[in-house]
Amino acid sequence: MADSLSTFTGTYMKTIRLVAPVLLIVVSASILPAQDQKAANPAAAPPNLVLLLHQEIQAGKTKERQKLESSISRACDRLETPNDWIGLQSLSGTQEALLFDPFDSFEDLGKSNIEWRRFFAAHPDLAQLQEEIDGLVVSDRTIIAARRDDLGYLADSIDLSEAHYMRVLDVRLFPGHESDFAEAIKILADAYAKIPADTPWVVYQVDVGIPTPAFLVFMPMPELKPNDELLSWRANLIQAEGEQAADALQKIAREAFASTETNLYVVSPELSHVSREFAASDPDFWKHKTAPDPVPGDIKPKTQPSASR
What we know:
disordered N terminus, Alpha-Beta Plaits, alpha+beta, eight-stranded antiparallel barrel, disordered C terminus, 9 helices
């Protein structure tokens, strides 16, 4: 997988020729044989809006940052906070922390931003912890993206509380080619259905934070083992899509795709703060494994756009 992605990010002309099959590789990395879908936990469904905070941490300070984040997360479990978040750590690409904050709307995000400020004012000890974390950050980037229900595959079956890993595909397009991306992703969904496959994905269209048009495809995975089936499933997907669909994908790649990048993240319950309803499908995984810190209260403003901090 890593070799394929490395090849993909080479020269532009090579990338154009490889976009269609690489997209198939990326999406197929976690496919399992089709089976009956169980009812998803509505509290852990992909949100309408997601705020993603990417943070690059100072060299040698990762463990220190994780300890501080864990203290804040555990403190927030004992307090009423404006919203929840999922903490992730990169396993590929630039070594970074990623905070995944769900919202229903921009209105809710705005309210949360105000409430976090009030929360910090009421809990100065936690504000101090957050300042210590911010001091360990070399750079950060905040992205806000809206869910595209028309582009997902089995997205209604996704239970984020069961995700121990997250594969994220970042697709940048040339201006005016959003409909081409939609066509390409629907071709892939048709190929999935023909296999058939039961690994879902959910698509978000970036609104702010990086040059647009851009889309993010999230593939939650309970484990890494399905990646071992990559080669065989790749062959099945290419066969399932057919020659005409393959030609359509290559045409879209030549004309619409500026770049793609895929990275894998591990979900860290210690760095997350989720509701009991969210964790209901896998409570043992989400339960903090260490005793709470003796701090009176804690909070993290990772849910705020970085420009507002």
